[in-house]
Design a protein that fits this description.
It is built from one helix and four strands; from the N terminus they run ββββα. By secondary structure, it is α+β, with helices and mostly antiparallel strands.
């Protein structure tokens, strides 16, 4: 079976997010980091890939619905700080 070459499954595609309350949600927008520029070329995730497309390493996971809860991230960071502080 051949791989469907879209921006969203390219190693160089960087998904954009918006913050909504305490959650970060995916938006239908991102950019290409292939040229090493901070923002690169703007792309939609379902855009047909260019000739420089390279398969992203997703370990079998879909990245389409990746969202972060900022309260969870904060609690994890606080836990790390507590652990590191205890080792001083």
């Amino acid at each position: 079976m051949s791989e469907i070459k879209l921006c969203k499954n390219c190693e160089y595609f960087v998904q954009h997010y918006i913050k909504e309350d305490t959650t970060f949600k995916c938006v239908d927008f991102g950019h290409c980091s292939r040229d090493g520029k901070p923002r690169g070329v703007s792309r939609k995730p379902d855009t047909s890939a260019c000739t420089r497309w390279k398969q992203a390493d997703t370990n079998g996971e879909q990245q389409d619905e990746v969202c972060f809860n900022s309260d969870y991230v904060y609690s994890m960071l606080k836990e790390f700080v507590d652990i590191l502080s205890a080792n001083d």
